[in-house]
């Protein structure tokens, strides 16, 4: 007797096979059932271990169509054994397997806000730990002269400062000029807010919208794009889309690299 398939689902209603993606170390994916987003750190026995930005680990089965990669449904598969250890950090530097974090330097990098610090940590965190550089945030630059004076930068305690929307002639530019010295370097990027330094394509939009002057920029962006106006939650969603330096605009990349080089340079010829 001829056997017939019990699957009566019309072909056009069956889900299309999701692309298979090797679960290589460092790949950032989201498990849609829980919303957990993290980088692959281990892949074994049909499971994958993800680590989120807080260092929390979760183990998930590698089921078909089980993950989202940049918003697309994918099936994770076990990669070749040689791919399980990343050869590059998120900043593009050569990874140093087993490297221990260096004791923190006296020098520091200051950024304007918490979001700036989180983005720098996400992309340059491995590099900064190896170099022993600590990143702190200021919550604005109005008090920068007093902060720099108290820090008292010197040859063995260099200070690097990253400022948002640093344009010639602005108040921020004048403050930056007043504190710049041989051992204190202030650099800036042209973006109104650090969100804008994330490439639009990485967060699934065509461009960052223009927000009318006088309106809170983050709130205006959320309204223009139809996003929830919970800017903290929106930022975490944006940050989750940043897997490496490739997701950031070059105007930010160059400035952060410049600060790291400055703080880690003793200044000796």
UniProtKB/TrEMBL annotation:
Residues 20-79, 108-264 form the DUF3097 domain. Residues 1-20 are annotated as: Disordered. It comes from Streptomyces prunicolor. Transmembrane segments: none annotated. It comes from the Bacteria. InterPro entries: DUF3097_C, DUF3097_N. Pfam families: DUF3097_C, DUF3097_N. This is DUF3097 domain-containing protein.
């Amino acid at each position: 007797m001829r056997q017939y398939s019990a699957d009566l689902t019309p072909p056009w209603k069956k889900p299309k096979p999701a692309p298979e993606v090797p679960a290589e170390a460092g790949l950032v994916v989201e498990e849609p059932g829980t919303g957990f987003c993290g980088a692959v750190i281990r892949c074994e026995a049909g499971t994958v271990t993800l680590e989120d930005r807080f260092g929390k680990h979760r183990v998930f089965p590698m089921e078909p169509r089980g993950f989202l990669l940049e918003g697309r449904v994918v099936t994770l598969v076990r990669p070749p054994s040689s791919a399980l250890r990343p050869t590059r950090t998120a900043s593009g530097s050569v990874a140093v397997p087993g490297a221990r974090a260096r004791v923190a330097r006296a020098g520091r990098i200051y950024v304007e806000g918490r979001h700036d610090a989180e983005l720098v940590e996400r992309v340059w965190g491995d590099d900064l730990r190896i170099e022993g550089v600590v990143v702190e945030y200021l919550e604005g630059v109005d008090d920068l002269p007093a902060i720099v004076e108290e820090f008292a930068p010197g040859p063995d305690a260099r200070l690097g400062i990253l400022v948002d929307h640093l344009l010639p002639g602005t108040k921020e530019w004048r403050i930056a000029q007043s504190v710049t010295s041989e051992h204190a370097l202030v650099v800036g990027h042209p973006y109104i807010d650090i969100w804008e330094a994330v490439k639009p394509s990485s967060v699934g939009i065509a461009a960052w919208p223009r927000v009318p002057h006088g309106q809170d920029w983050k709130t205006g962006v959320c309204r223009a794009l139809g996003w929830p106006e919970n800017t903290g939650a929106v930022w975490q969603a944006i940050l989750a889309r940043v897997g490496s330096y490739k997701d950031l605009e070059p105007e930010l990349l160059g400035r952060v690299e410049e600060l790291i080089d400055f703080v880690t340079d003793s200044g000796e010829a």
